[in-house]
Amino acid sequence: MDLQYCPDCKQETVVVTPDGRKFCDDEYTECRYSYNPYRGKFFVNLYMGDRAFGGREEGGWWFDTGEFLRCMFVTTSKTKALAARDKIQRRVCDQMNEGRREKWSVLSQGVYEIQMDEHPGADYPTGRPYYC
């Protein structure tokens, strides 16, 4: 039997199904890179970060939220993305947040935050978290 390799992650495949799908592990799950059009790209995204009330359990709890505002930079280099994130933080976010209250304050209306992600920006969380 010839060894077959996943075209995405280059790992030895365990199974090749009759319809041609390749599985990379004993769990028979498809390669995690198979359908990722953003693989190898780094996005520097601007968010409006805030906190939302989660519930009254244990004396009350809050969770972080982020409203995606815009993508500021895209590159294939993680080093360049980190440098761009730091530069934008110093030049843009720090100025825009001047006079704003921290997001943990009850009087906060949110703060501008810059993040490096491996996907295009999106609001987070996608669903309401629950206290366990």
Strand content: 25-35%
Main sheet specs:
3 strands, antiparallel
The helix content, as a percent range, equals 10-25%
Question: Which class do the helix and strand fractions yield?
Answer: alpha+beta
**How far is the N terminus from the C terminus?**
49 Å
By DSSP, the count of extended strands is: 5
Unreliable residue stretches:
none
Physical arrangement of strands within the biggest beta sheet: 4-3-5
Shape: flat
Element-by-element helix/strand order: EEEEHE
- The number of distinct helices, counting runs of at least 4 residues, comes to 1
Domains, number = 2
C-alpha Rg (nearest Å): 21 Å
| Mean pLDDT across all amino acids | 83
Describe the structure.
- The mean pLDDT is 83.
- A hairpin with a 5-residue loop joins strand 3 and strand 4.
- A three-stranded antiparallel β-sheet has the order 4-3-5. A two-stranded antiparallel ribbon has the order 1-2.
- The protein has 132 residues and is of the alpha+beta class.
- It has one helix and five strands.
- It folds into two domains: 35 residues, no CATH class; 76 residues, no CATH class.
List the helices and strands and how they pair.
Blueprint: E1 15-16, E2 22-23, E3 42-55, E4 61-75, H1 78-96, E5 111-117
Question: What is this entry, summarized?
Answer:
Helices cover 14% and strands 30% of the residues.
Q: What descriptive keywords fit this protein?
A:
2 domains; about 130 residues; flat; three-stranded antiparallel sheet; 1 helix
